[in-house]
Amino acid sequence: MDIQYSKKRESFQKAQQLYEQYYVSNDENLFEQLLVLTDSIYGKQVRNLLKQNGCFNEESEHTALQEARLAIWQQVRKCRENGTPDPDFIRYCKGIYYHKGMDAVRTQNTYRRRFSDNSGRAPVSFDATLQEGGKNLGDTIEDVRNSLESGIALDEQRWVFNSLFVLYCQCLANGKAEPPRELALFYARIFPHVVEVIPEEKMASAKWAFEHMKGKTVQKLGEKSEAEMRELIDQTLRWHENFWLQLEKTICAGDEKTLLKDVIYTDVYGKNKIEDWSESMHRTVVKEVVKNVMKDSRLVESAVEYISDRDKIYCLIKGGRDR
User: Fold this and answer.
1) I need a labelling partner for 108 at 20 to 30 A (CA). Which of 48, 159, 209, 230 fits?
2) How many structural domains compose the chain?
3) What is the full DSSP assignment across 48-117?
């Protein structure tokens, strides 16, 4: 598991470096290398989206990836116009690939629903000329998808997803529960989705968390998880001061008394305990998230509009066990 994560982390770092070099130099060779790497990181996500929705074929995959590449180029240009490189650009690219994959799904579904003929005749071709305007169906769909209004909607949707996810992590990091409980939630429910080692529809995995934490002290896991939160989620995330203070407490581990920070996590806490704590901590954190969301009317309205039961953020924040 650690080897898989290490390789993924190296790819993220390399891609971010290529982006920053391209931002400065505008060297097209660097941009091509960047696209090859982002495709390798997120291309599987696009294929899975298409397959899950019964829309996978070479054409739909090619279209989604091409649209994602164009959107990346446009985003780099926007960063240059703003005069500031994005320190989390590669994480932002994940949203680009996801939304372009979903665009391809929606296009296919629209085609099926509105233009197929249930009487047995062949569906209307994308090259067929429409009566109004003289454009063909494919061009008309493309115009709608690329309209300013559609772009604004996608930006709003990305903002909602990022805001809710970061808020969830902030509520965990700022909580005052015991460190082993907080680490259980982070490694069973949050981190596996960030590094994409469990399926998108799976809410949590105590089994994966146990294997990932095996052999590490609570102190080490605290330091490691904080570094991972800051690098992969948001640079402002840090465990609350109370987290570190509690590590100095003496606990009974078997027949011995020892400081909590020195305890080998998986020697004391098993998979069942991780599962129970992940579930109970999740409910506690969600309550805090809801309290904070209700203070932001824009976030409330947008969340209701954009979040569906097929979205990863929905899997993250909804209740229920999943081994």
Assistant:
1) 159
2) 2
3) HHHHHTT--SHHHHHHHHHHHHHHHHHHHHHHHHHT---TTHHHHHHHHHHHHHHHHHHHHHHHHHHH--
Does residue 209 form part of some domain?
A: yes
Which amino acid type is present at position 35? L
**Residues 197 and 258 both lie in one domain:** yes
pLDDT under 50: residue ranges of the chain: 1, 115, 117-128, 130-132, 137-138, 140-141, 144-145, 147-152, 308-323
Q: Which backbone phi and psi does 246 adopt, to 5 degrees?
A: -65, -25
Which pair of structure tokens corresponds to residue 309?
């039961």
What confidence tens digit (pLDDT) does each residue in 121-150 have?
Answer: 444 444 445 444 555 544 544 554 454 444
- Whether residue 280 sits in one domain with residue 206: yes
In 3D, which of 233, 202, 208, 155 has the Cα closest to residue 312?
202
Residue with tokens 């609570």: 218
Q: Is 247 found in the same domain as 140?
A: no
Q: 3-class DSSP state for residue 296?
A: coil
**Do 164 and 289 contact (CB within 8 A), yes or no?**
yes
C-alpha closest to that of 183 among 289, 94, 291, 263: 263
For residues 168 and 276, state if they share a domain: yes
DSSP 310: T
Is the model's pTM score more than 0.90? no
Of the candidates 184, 209, 191, the residue with the CA atom closest to the CA atom of residue 282: 184
**Which residue range is the domain that position 96 belongs to?**
2-117+135-146
Helix, strand, coil percent content, the chain, rounded in steps of 5? 70, 5, 25
Rounded Cα gap, residues 83 and 92, in angstroms:
17
